[in-house]
Task: structure prediction
Amino acid sequence: MRESQPFSSAAHARTSALTRREALAGGMGFSAILLALPALAQPRAPGQGMVLKLRAEAITAKLGDSAVESRLFRLVAPEMKHESPASFPVFRFREGEAFSLEIENQLAQPVSFHIRGLRGPSSEDGVAGLTGAPIAPGAKGLVRCDARQSGTFILQPAFADHVPEQVARGLCAAVIIEEKSPPAFDEDLVLAVGDWRVNEAGALAEEFLALPDAARVGRLGNRLSANYAPAPLERRVKPGARLRIRMINVSNARMIPIRIDGFAAEVYAIDSTPCQPFDPLKRTVVLAPASRIEMALQAPGEAGKSGAIEAKLASNLPIMRLTTHGESMPARTKPAPLPDPGLPPAIRLQDAVRADMVITGGVGLDPAEAEPGKLAARFPDPRRIYQINGRNDGFAGKPLASLKRGRVFVLALHNKTAWPQVIAVHGHAFRLLHPFDDGWEPYFLDNLYLAPNTVSRIALIADNPGKWAIRASIAEHFAAGVASWFEVT
Result:
């Protein structure tokens, strides 16, 4: 099969953008919880790895320099008393070490958690209504993981009814599984990019799953955030340093084009899967909601040089500012590519099982359609705004396909709505096919942006048995009916 040119910027038309004035400028330092395992983990049964105890809880904190506090949700490790509870949590493990996450739900609503990008067993996929039950308030749940796959992953809510609120309030975390022999980087940083919707008082706006959002593009914020702090973060690095930046989109709905200024950059992994390093087209890549992109940044060799990771929206808004400071690092060759993910380089499409996923519903572009009275009359149930192949039965309906293990699956994704859709495939990595099935993009994905009124086709080898969700990554669309599934027997 022929491969196309490297990863290009997907269109993100019709999504409103932040202005520079709307973005909240902050000088907060880079903050994350970096857990040194196994110090915080508790032993499981012999040979079964370690257990990391977490708690889903509500906190109150100010968003940046706001004068008022907001009610936020966080996943915290109780042992990390010295960390700010408002920080973006990062949990690090080592490839080959089995581990479990024991999550205590101290919220007043049920939760369910999925580790996005980790191709583990279906029984641990964490999608309420398909592969397990949610964790009730006051109860505990266990997510078992076999860390055979290194990379950058998101621990994110996956109970559709509550995902819009839980993501907006910050109930996400990064799970990093480090390689046994990691490439030589001077710093390894997580950068979770999102947006907050704040009211005039500076508090988090609390209309969740609002019909005007769910029936159109989803909940868009008006202030940019980085690691659950106001953007931009400020960081000093040594001249000549090589940085590994693990970027994650933790917003409800916003497409975030990323531009690198002042530092040389290469993409090393997309959606938790390594790829052959390449220069991002026009130094820009696009992070869809729940997408992950790993980049290598090379700092200039002189002190006093500046660079930035920027969101290319209405204008270039800095997410992280980087300044070289101190003595120069010795010159070195660039790091080797990340380890081969073990996925097949080619997919035989001739005998593929083929299916269609047709997404309809929502409103059009006419603002009159989004008037509150009209929306309430048209969509009395906000969970039934969209249909998949004419139905709105989600995970309770029939699968899109039932495949024997090892079969090739080609899925045509039709976005027949007036708004972008972002579709996630659980348990598998896929190739994005060219329009005539004559090739594919030279990287694997598990998350795909669909422009309005377009069709894209993906191909995967169904090698992971179980039931697997195919659903919206935009939180409001997931809650409003963009959900289906397939099974591998």
Remarks:
- Helices lie at 163-168, 211-214, 372-378, 475-479.
- Residues 110 and 136 are 5 Å apart (CA to CA).
